[in-house]
Task: structure prediction
Amino acid sequence: MSDALINGLAGAGGGIIAQLITYPLQTVNTRQQTERDLKKEKRKLGTIQQMCQVVNQEGWERLYGGLTPSLVGTAASQGVYYYFYQIFRNKAEATALERQKKGIGDGSVGVLSSLIVAALSGCVNVLLTTPIWVIVTRMQTHKKILKKDHSDRSTTTAVEETVLSVIEPLPYGTSHVIQEVYDEAGFWGFWKGVFPSLIMVSNPSIQFMLYETMLKKLKKRRSLRKKGNNGITALEIFLLGALAKLGATAVTYPVLVVKSRLQAKQVTTGDRRHHYKGTLDAILKMIRYEGFSGFYKGMSTKIAQSVLAAAVLFMVKEELVRGARLLLIKGRINTVKSKPP
Result:
């Protein structure tokens, strides 16, 4: 088994575990990002309050809306990303060694090369997995409409009755969302938000650059202190992953909000300020009607969710990679021992 495949599978496994742990936070965050109420006097709910509101009004299951396609997307994204990251990383390391032989550099992959490697891996990942995340965003932002008490008909208009009778019974599974996206924008509708998603490639690029830089420095310091022993614990990996994700999220969050707005169901009737024709239109309307604060809706929730998810992912991935390599080494040793002299 190649090192790239080991990292790909480990990344997928770590991503799934992190997703399961943090999914309710992700659902709430997506709703916060796509909230288009322009009334500034509206009282903003905190993360925990909003989670409780969803549970009370729509049930526990809505916190996990879109979980199945999200797990598929997470496994695919992390697997694709880590697989291609390792391939590009290996090529970068080989190039660095070749340059060292020619008297250029010290043979290590520099910060710029690490950034390029992460960016290329991210672009491949975005192009292949964006349709999955469009579906997930739709399912996370879909709000379950509860049956209204019609005992007092005087408080219910004819329009409200029609909306309730049409919307409330409809299912909203993966197949329904796929049909909805296709009816709304055709085949290319599944790549809505791909432009800001490609810009968001800088997020994992910054994340991995920060992570590997901190990891390299920690290993070097550990090696000097313990005479060649540069082992890093799972807790240290957890903290390094959290710090790296925190830095990357703070820089790129506004782009993530624009992406979520584009991928959520578009309002084609009523207030046209809620309808976005594209990335630039979304940015201009958000600045005009919501101000720059609109680009940071739900940021505290995102930081909590993404930092926790990234920390868990890194910790689990490193442990899975370490375990897989140990199993391969043991397998080779057993194979050698079993051969006749």
